Amino acid sequence: MAAPLASFALVVGLLTLTPGVDTALILRTAALGQRRRAWGVVLGIQTGTMIWGTASAAGLSVLLTASRLAYETLRWAGVCYLLWMGVQLFRDRHREPAAEDAPSATGQGNGGGLWAGWRRGTVTNLLNPKVGVFYVAVLPPFIPAGQPHLPAGVLLTSVHVLEGTLWSAVLIGFAHTLRTWLRRPAARRLLDRVTGTAVLGFGVKLALTD
């Protein structure tokens, strides 16, 4: 498995570095000082990646390429979710940057913290049919003949998860340096508008892509 692992790591490494809606969400959340929630987003995205990879290794995500109805249903669910999220960013009331990380009387972060971030990251990833199609097309060729399909697929997916987590740590560290500047209401509004525009753009792109 050494050679396939190295080759797959290179392919998904390039994919990880390509900016997308995941990158926008992580940067926006971390830049507002919501580090716990940002890590929740990261864990949610990687949860979705592991689910897609496991499903592909098990043969389940082949349905996306075999069934036009299954793909279109998931695609339009993803479009609606991205458009809704983009609109919400434009309508955000701009709470204090650390509000969602501040402990409440119950010891839990306001606004959901880690859990809310995990939920958003997972839903965003799972409602992107391109991730499923990517794994259907790319994962099987990297599994050597004679290797158990499911364990090998999970191992390869774990490489993607590891690279994605490491890159996300870099993004969170970079975004955290902007925290002081983003305490200004005008700066937070600008960040939400930029992120909202990016998310809406990804939603429109997904709607127009066959």
Automatic annotation (TrEMBL):
UniProt subcellular location: Cell membrane
InterPro entries hit by this protein: LeuE-type
Signal peptide: none
Gene Ontology CC: one annotated term: plasma membrane
Keyword terms of this UniProt record: Cell membrane, Membrane, Transmembrane, Transmembrane helix
MF terms in GO: amino acid transmembrane transporter activity
Presence of keyword Transmembrane: yes
Pfam families: LysE
Keyword Transmembrane helix: yes
Protein name, entry field: Lysine transporter LysE
Membrane topology: Multi-pass membrane protein
Membrane-spanning ranges: 6-27, 39-67
Native organism: Kitasatospora cheerisanensis KCTC 2395
